[in-house]
Amino acid sequence: METILLDINKEDDLNQACKFFREGSIVAIPTETVYGLGANALDVNAVKKIYEAKGRPSDNPLIVHISDMDKIPTLVQETSSEQYKLAIRVGKEFWPGPLSLVFPKSSIVPDRVTGGLKTVVLRIPSHPVALKILSNLEFPLAAPSANTSGKPSPTTAQHVLHDLQGKIAAVVDGGCSNVGVESTVVNLFCDPPLILRPGGVTFEQLKKLVPSLQLHHSLIEIPHKVGTERKQSQEKDSKQRNESKGFDELTSRLEKEQLLNEIVKLVQIRHSQKSISTTNCPPSSLGSVISPSSENVSDAVTPPPLPATINYAHSSSSISPASETSSKSETLSSPATPFSLGSSSQQHSDSQSSSSSSSSSSSSSNSSVVIDTSTPPPPTPGMKYTHYSPDSPIVLITRQETASTSVTEHTALSDVLKSSSSANDDIPDDTFKAMISLLKSVVERIAKTESEKKKEETHQPPQDVYNVVFLWTSVSSPVPFSIETPSNIKINLSHCFLGPLLSAVQRNLFSSLRDCDQTFAADLVLVEGVAPHEEGIAIMNRLTKAAKICIDPTDVIS
Fold first, then answer.
1. d(Cα 247, Cα 371) in Å, to the nearest integer?
2. Per-residue pLDDT tens for 457-482?
3. How far is residue 224's CA from residue 422's CA, in Å, rounded to a whole number?
4. Which of 360, 439, 499, 533 has the fewest Cβ atoms surrounding its Cβ within 10 A?
């Protein structure tokens, strides 16, 4: 099957998308959250194609998209209860928009759509193209994210093509998704009402309309997990998690040795399995890659504009050939200057959203985060399975701020740190110190492993190259630091700043996770967490699902 790229500015292309839907085909369409893979929600055979194309488990239900609230009564079972009336009030407040509401389903909705559940999840998207297509159709669209199941959700048409080329009829190219994560899923038909998945509408926004609303406890805990031991760790600490009164009270600790061994194992598995060169990574939609050598800068490729500024910078250890008897180490220094993506007009837009976000933050700072400790509800979209994981192993360093702390209130590390070849003892921020300490320890262990392997080889093998990516949320430019790099390996170090606001971090998150694979071919990705409030709840939910390992800074700082 050839996947066609359709243009939102051509009426014939939009008509072709509608024709595909009427024929029972599946088409990816843009929404304000992420790209959705749509099919006629009332056609069991069409819905089956969604599951097949994505490789999605058949019991993972789909969100049904409609063009207006007049379509609700035919899809739901009861319309007279107080819960239904509350859901309608909430819908009128936030629709069209990034909110999905759970309803008892009517018999017209196939069980295939709901994963066998007796509920259906409805949403009215705000993207004008999605609304136009829905308005032109005689049926609703079931539409999960248009990606391979388990991978980061797509926020551009190019992301969709990367995953689903040849598996779907067409992609409607609507540019970059503005929100950047999936919709918030809310169940108002349970007591208490619950947010089942955080997303584009925040807990604080919803709580103003539904004071009794609670976050499901699984959404605000940070599981301290080590690779395959995640499940056992969760079961062992379940009692402690249920008794937890907040995000920063989950204190399960991992032994440092076990932690480092698991990270090194993940890095080595990734390094051995990569099929693309680690020294010549192809550019992706996020921009061109600067050669690690300061004397050899690759030809710049002008990237398409992004909805927010993303800064990248690249560095490597400059290793000179050394004899086997030499004990000299080289210094790996972080670059002082990043290169920036994004137009000035976009930056102006972010500046405007900054004031809006600040006022929202101040007005909702008194909203408390309530953890529900009752029996979890039935699985809903995005809850039951691990999602958002690139091939590159992610290690998340959590932040332990209070709910009143925002990204913009984090310490401006670039203003206070000194460039030094020392162990960065003057660094005041525990999260940053943990990331650097962790990188240093991992590099030392990989170097030791490589030395042991090479002792058994009869010829001198080439220097091994490892790619490491830092994803920052609190600093707008790479922070000066340096560590000593053993002479038998080379480290390509890249930095990415996700944005000055939580909304920008959220918008750029999935693109950056994809870029770790497609641009940097990363062997290790170290991610700085954010405070668990407003958009930060959704961000941390996605990162904890994507991460192989989640740790507290104190796990790695001696």
1. 9
2. 666 666 788 999 999 887 655 556 66
3. 30
4. 360
One DSSP character per residue, 486-521 reads -TTEEEEEEEEE--SSHHHHHHHHHHHHHHHHHTT-
pLDDT at res. 297:
25
DSSP tag of 303: P
Cβ atoms within 10 Å of 326's Cβ, excluding its own: 10
C-alpha to C-alpha distance for 433 and 429, rounded to whole angstroms = 6
State the alpha helices, DSSP H only, in 120-210: 128-136, 157-164, 203-209
DSSP structural state of residue 203: H
Model pTM score: 0.77
Asked if residues 76 and 106 have their Cβ atoms less than 8 Å apart, the reply is yes
Element (H, E) at 13: helix 11-22
DSSP string for residues in 348-405: HHHHHHHHHHHHHHHHHTTPPP-EE-SPPPSP-TTTSS-----SSPEEEE-----TT-
Handedness of CA 158, 160, 165, 169 (dihedral sign): negative
For residue 228, give the DSSP letter: G
Tokens of 152: 């980061």
| pLDDT for 186 | 98
pLDDT, position 225? 57
The 10 Å Cβ neighbour count of residue 169 is 23
- CA–CA gap between residue 106 and residue 84 (Å, rounded): 14
CB-neighbour burial class of residue 356 (10 A; exposed 0-12, middle 13-18, buried 19+): exposed
> Which pLDDT score is estimated for 553?
80
Q: List the one residue out of 231, 182, 95, 522 whose CA is nearest residue 383.
A: 182
Which token pair is 386?
A: 């691990």
Closest CA to 25 of 134, 125, 167, 158: 167
Q: Which domains does the chain have, with CATH numbers?
A: 4-215 (3.90.870.10), 230-318+392-555 (no CATH)
Q: Please provide the distance, in angstroms rounded to a whole number, between the alpha carbons at the two ends of the chain.
A: 56
For residue 368, is pLDDT > 70? Answer: no
Contacts with 411 (C-beta within 8 Å, 6 or more apart), sequence order: 428, 429, 474
**Distance separating alpha carbons of residues 339 and 550, to the nearest angstrom:** 29
- How far apart are the C-alpha atoms of 340 and 29, rounded to whole Å? 29
